[in-house]
Design goal:
Layout: H1 20-23, E1 36-39, E2 43-49, H2 52-57, E3 65-67, H3 70-82, E4 86-91, H4 94-106, E5 110-113, E6 115-117, H5 125-131, E7 137-138, E8 143-145, E9 150-156, E10 162-167, H6 181-185, E11 189-192, H7 205-215, E12 221-223
Parallel strand pairs: 1-5, 1-11, 2-9, 3-10, 5-7, 6-8, 11-12
Antiparallel strand pairs: 2-4, 9-10
EC number: 2.7.1.73
Protein name: Inosine-guanosine kinase
Keywords: Kinase, Transferase
Length: 224
């Protein structure tokens, strides 16, 4: 797939390029402005160091990945916070990370569509998601939800073994009406993931995912 934007920095040695000191004085063609759009299941990667008793108490299987209910995830998260066991909280998600990386490399606009907690506490996982995403990634179109976004816990045990606990939260509650047609119409590319259409019956994410493909058939799209 061709890089759909203006790459500001070349991360290799340009042996046949013009002098970069001269290039910076050449005016850019503003009419070539473009952005990419991505739809994602917004989730946060939360890493913590715990003992074996912690893993057993929450019914997890050491070294494996399990899906947990929202109430279990909330209790787990609150205990990690109270005991100061959290080491990192990263913005996760395949498409969210892709939009972030695009904006960093191109120094250009990308737009992320998904959900975000309506009420955000300073220092919370949702707060960290916003803080750790490039300022060139437009998050203004995220749909607010009354509840948690997705959370993926990486629990590092006493032996160093990693146990994963995944809580979907409200990450699949993106509605079709939250997909802005004008943003889709002006985009140079649309980036999707097949996880978006693998949801529980009744969840609106699959319909929201397919809306851009039905409203603008000539857009370049990529499934990840």
């Amino acid at each position: 797939m061709k890089f759909p934007g203006k790459r500001k920095s070349k991360h290799y040695f340009p042996v046949n390029a013009r002098d970069p000191l001269l290039q910076q004085f050449q005016p850019e063609n503003e009419t070539s402005a473009a952005w990419v759009v991505g739809i994602d299941q917004t989730l946060v990667d939360i890493e913590a160091k715990v003992d074996d008793e912690f893993i057993e108490r929450y019914g997890l299987s050491a070294g494996h990945s399990l899906v947990i209910e929202d109430d279990v995830a909330e209790a787990l998260y609150q205990e990690l916070k109270q005991k100061n066991l959290i080491t990192h909280q990263f913005a996760g998600g395949t498409i969210g990370n892709t939009m972030h990386n695009y904006s960093v490399l191109a120094d250009d606009r990308s737009v992320l569509l998904g959900v975000m907690c309506s009420n955000i506490e300073i220092g919370s996982y949702a707060y960290r998601y916003l803080c750790n995403t490039s300022s060139r990634t437009d998050l203004n179109y995220l749909q607010g939800v009354d509840g948690p976004i997705g959370r993926c816990f990486t629990l590092i045990g006493e032996s160093g073994e990693r146990t994963f606990a995944i809580s979907p939260g409200h990450m699949n509650q993106l509605r079709a009406e939250s997909i802005p047609e004008d943003v889709i119409a002006g985009a140079s590319a649309l980036v999707l993931t097949s996880y978006l259409v693998r949801c529980k019956p009744g969840e609106p994410m699959p319909e929201a995912t397919m809306k851009p493909l039905s409203t603008r058939r000539n857009i370049t799209y990529r499934w990840c």
